[in-house]
Amino acid sequence: MATAIHVGDRAPDFELLAANGQTVRLSDFRGNKNVVLYFYPASETPGCTVQACGFRDAYSQFQALGAEVIGISGDPLDKQTGFQSHHHLPFLVLSDPDNKVRQTYGASTLFGLFPGRVTYVIDKNGIVRYIFDSMFNVKEHIDSALKILRTLEATPA
């Protein structure tokens, strides 16, 4: 599946439930925070756990750069709640059980069968500034998002 959203596009708004039971809309952050929105295949799988813990371990850096991290998978809410609790994830973990938000963003699939791993950096105005799509280079999702956020913070408004 080709990416439906491109750098420079306005990020589509969505409304999903978070593991903490809160309703989250992307538009809630507009004008206030940059957003690192990442889609991952499934909670509690090895690569997804490494990725989530990488975002967790760097979370203070994301906050210092004025960003919120949001993880999304198609897992049901109860599984997301367990994943967030088990790994002490300080950021929002959202359930997209029918993968509608994933499809809206055009987040890739592996071999057309398995949900892919895609990270979007969205600025405070809701514009997509960076997209990284890699199923296997998990650490780069975190490193590249931080690099782009540093660039956004250094650029005068």
Number of strands: 9
CATH topology: Glutaredoxin
Based on CA atoms alone, the radius of gyration comes out at: 14 Å
For CATH, the homologous superfamily is named as Glutaredoxin
Beta-strand content: 15-25%
**Low-confidence segments:** none
GO molecular function: thioredoxin peroxidase activity
Domain Thioredoxin: 5-154
GO cellular component, one term: thylakoid
Subunit structure: Monomer.
Written description of the protein model:
By secondary structure, this protein is an alpha+beta fold. It has a single domain (15-154), classed as Glutaredoxin, CATH 3.40.30. It has helices spanning 46-57, 59-64, 77-86, 100-105, 138-154; strands at 15-18, 23-25, 34-39, 67-73, 92-95, 109-110, 114-115, 118-122, 128-133. The strands form two sheets. The protein has a seven-stranded mixed beta sheet with strand order 2-1-5-4-3-8-9.
Brief summary of the model shown:
With 157 residues, this protein is an alpha+beta fold.
Helix and strand layout, with pairings?
Elements: E1 15-18, E2 23-25, E3 34-39, H1 46-57, H2 59-64, E4 67-73, H3 77-86, E5 92-95, H4 100-105, E6 109-110, E7 114-115, E8 118-122, E9 128-133, H5 138-154
Parallel strand pairs: 3-4, 4-5
Antiparallel strand pairs: 1-2, 1-5, 3-8, 6-7, 8-9
